[in-house]
Amino acid sequence: MRVVLAEDAVLLRAGVQRLLADEDIETAAAVDNGDDLVKAVTEHKPDLAIVDVRMPPTFTDEGLRAALAARQAVPGLPVLVLSQYVEESYAVELLSGGAGGVGYLLKERVADVAEFLDAVRRVARGGTAIDPEVIAQLMARGRRNPLDALTPRESEVLGLMAQGLSNTAIGGKLVVSQGAVEKHIGNIFAKLGLEASAEEHRRVRAVLTYLGRV
């Protein structure tokens, strides 16, 4: 079996490659961004693409969008997505494509090596491997307030955004780095299902959601 791996975290990327190598699974290419993923699957035509949801430049949903693009470039390409939490909007699009060879696991499952490798083989064969938490959240989709998905800190950041504070000002208020604020905002955009568009436009839409106007 040959795979293309897309993961921007160097240590996790190396760890997954080692797990695969121990099972005689070849990593044809290991990349750290969505554009290179699409190029790699087009070039290597792998048996499977393993894709992290969050990659540069914004660390929000690039991986999922790249996975969808990769399946368009190589129809029928089996894709196993790894994420820290459920990205509902793109998860639905990926899982509802009508074809097999799709997996969506939370990253904590990688710690269970046997379960992870079973998912790799199953998806590569054209089956599915969907994390129970993904199923639970998608079943509840549409029956809850989207703000419920936010952590307390993310809700706090969104509240400060609604006050009109800049990222720098939010960082000062919460005594965290600007990078941490940007990560929280990326989480907010993803959890609210705000697809890629102009940064300010997504910011306004997030605030409007917070204010209950959309």
UniProtKB/TrEMBL annotation:
- Record-linked InterPro entries: CheY-like_superfamily, NreC/VraR/RcsB-like_REC, Sig_transdc_resp-reg_receiver, Tscrpt_reg_LuxR_C, WalR-like
Q: Which Pfam family, any one of them, does this sequence belong to? A: GerE
Entry's SMART domains? HTH_LUXR, REC
Q: Which UniProt keywords apply?
A: DNA-binding, Phosphoprotein, Transcription, Transcription regulation
Classification via CDD domains = LuxR_C_like (cd06170), REC_NarL-like (cd17535)
Q: Name one GO molecular function term.
A: DNA binding
The name this protein goes by in its record: DNA-binding response regulator
